[in-house]
Give the backbone structure.
Amino acid sequence: MRTLKYALIAVVALVVLVAGGAFVFLSTLDLNQYKPQIEQAVKDRTGRTLKLQGDIKAALFPSLGADIGKVSLTERGSDQEFLSLDLAHASVAVLPLLHGEVVVDKIRLKGLKANVVKGKDGKFNFDDLLQASADQPAEAKPAEKKEGPKNEGTVKFEVAGVDIEDSSASYRDLASGKSLAVSGLRLSTGRLGERADGKLQFAAALKGTNPALDLKAELRGDYRVDLGAKTYVLTKVDGSVKGTLEKNAIEATLTAPSIDISADKASGEAVNASFKLKGAR
């Protein structure tokens, strides 16, 4: 028995030593040394040029994630920029994973720029990326167990919040001549999940052609969501849209103490809305 006891202690000590060594190795691993390989892999796979100009910082505990800065991706076979960002942060809390819960820390995107184009053939300039993903070989599915009761646990997914700032996006339809540019985009949310509540803030400037528009929009309020019950509650809502639409001055506002939306009805408490449209002189 004493021999077995010492053997078990030795095994546990070995496991702890290996795990500790792996943690130290991964925590001190410099991912920046692999940037050339990552850029080349993207080039080979997509025909696009990926530039990782900023540092890549990884974290293991208490959250598993990374900070990435100064990234850009070109169009396929071109030097024209398709997507870029100044900073991105996302991480997943480690301990909740042991309980079947995916809890993502606050996602941050700063300086995001996206250029979306729909060609005259009806294809978008990102269709090749979707096709490349679809062409990847499917992973072999494990054999289904025919014996024993099924134990299908539900994975709980939550995001602590989303912060997007100083971002922009543009869209052009080469067939119709329509275009839309969104600039000064700011979006901030609280917790997101099957059941969640928090504060929402949104602001952006929009310019477009066909129809011609030049608008600034803002929205803020509190929210409460229950996806299982299909209920959505907005409180302290305050929103506005101001600018021009086809050379007509437009001004719209919305305020409401509460807006309650469920699967079969919607109700509100003292919703106040105004809309003014003034033609060009």
Notes: Confidence is low (pLDDT under 50) at residues 3-28, 145-153. Residues 2-27 form the longest helix (26 residues). The first strand starts at residue 50 and ends at 52.
